[in-house]
Amino acid sequence: MLHLRIISPADRTDEIVALAERTVGVAHLAVLTGAARSPQGDIVLCDVAREAADELLEALGEAGVPQWGAIAVDGVDLMLSRRAEVAKEEAPGEGADAIVWESLAGETHEESTLTVTFLAFLTVATMLAACGVIIDSAILIVGAMAVGPEFGPLAGLCTALVRRTPRLAWRSLAALLVGFPVAMLVTGGFSLLMDWLGLFHEAKFLAPRPQTAFIWQPDAFSFIVAFLAGIAGILSLTSAKSGALIGVAISVTTVPAAANAAVALSYGNWSETRGSAVQLALNLLGIVIAGTLTLLAQKWFWARQRARGPARA
């Protein structure tokens, strides 16, 4: 269940209450008259089944609530209520399969913003991967994958393509197109510094590396794995199963490929630089294609669900 808190001018409260009452899947509707101070008005509270939330939010948006009021949505971890159970049974579909588009757009908007924190995480992850490349450590490579924040902008780009929101698309592209070059540039400098300190050695980099050679040797599985990871990542976001994102993070070779390219470039190894760049491009492309197709499939599926049993009575 999701909990909605709506601030409404007094003259629009009846309209909002009517929308909530007409939505199958809504429970625990309450009105606090005159409780809001900024902006002034009433507060309308209700709980809604996740599978019915998108239609209610869409109706509230069409009514103009975000323009002259406010809508806050919170997830409810525990709900002990027979009425809530009935609401979930009445709503079409299953909550685990439902997409709350406004929530997805808000989450991807935040995660796809180019910030100092984003750059710091991506740079640290790339430097960790560089260490893993030099000592041929699969553990460090996996750790770097888990630290990398690049799935946020990729998910934002997929969402932007499906919802046709150019601003989110440009924001996501900016994070990727600025983030990776900055991380690679810093990692290249880090590699040269470590070499000067005697901690990195070109001989180690050129020696056989059975644990990490896959990073700069892309093949068909590079795209296949990225494609499957893109599906899993988007499903984890839309179903609120964020724990699955960890598995996605350690299955794609974006950060390690960027790190290997940076180290190879610092040593003038053009062959590995090209191979790593291709690996990076294949992973990014596979995730974006898979994520976009997954969102389109979910959008089509929920359109059919709503056509069979509309959430609004």
Automatic annotation (TrEMBL):
The yes or no answer to whether the keyword Cell inner membrane is present is no
Membrane spanning stretches: 114-135, 174-194, 214-237, 244-268, 280-302
- Alphabetical keyword list: Membrane, Transmembrane, Transmembrane helix
Pfam short name (any one)? DUF389
Q: Which PANTHER family match?
A: AT15442P-RELATED
Q: What is this protein called?
A: Uncharacterized protein
Organism whose genome encodes this protein = Streptomyces cinnamoneus (Streptoverticillium cinnamoneum)
